[in-house]
Amino acid sequence: MKRDRLDDATFEVAHALADAARVATLKHFRTPLSVDSKTSDFDPVTIADREAEAAMRAILAQRRPDDGILGEEGDAITGTSGLTWVLDPIDGTRGFISGTPTWGVLIALRDAGGPFLGIIDQPYIAERFVGGSGFARWTRGDQSRDLSVSAVTDLEQATILTTFPEVGTTAQGDAFRRVASRCRLTRYGMDCYAYALLAAGHVDLVIEAGLQPYDIAAPIAVVQGAGGIVTDWQGGPAHDGGTCIAAATPALHARALDLLNG
So where does Mg(2+) 1 get bound (predicted)? Predict the structure, then answer.
């Protein structure tokens, strides 16, 4: 499959994954949950994470058996097609267990060059952001519209989002604050929804660190499809995780990148 010629069947599978994860997560959202931690530093996981990923993997096993799978909660599967589905059943589990509707389901399809189809789905408010090579679209029920990033070019007029105030290591946090101190407004705790807001033109900049590939693959496709720019903090590809800067315009990206490395 060529990345610029996605077929209807692939879109149908992607939406089927999002639909299944929506059902699996919503039945547990804002209910009493047992929360486990994957690390000693409290990296939470719940039955909702596990059930949602299992539901998506079951669909792929039936409908796309030749494709690979990279998911947060299960073992990686190496396919034979050259394509890999990248799944994060709940991006923002801390938000999920706190009852805030800023978490989301992330689904991406990637090849050796990176992600070329992505979905950010927020089940509770029923918003779905879909993007890929040359397109991005928002839907909620029977409502839909094309997505387009803002035209902001000056940091002083920009709204910047990130998830954790610490933003990775001490040095990375200092670098983030060099950028944020120049921006008009800084907001925290958005998880993947930050990238959805960027793609929709509501905010202008998202900067994060400490990412895994499944955290960023879908946001890359959605933001780029809406006309934005996504790289790591060195200006290279971000789809393997680590650091990420997503910007609405080239000028905004260049200025923020200079400050991050200044």
Answer: 72, 88, 91, 215
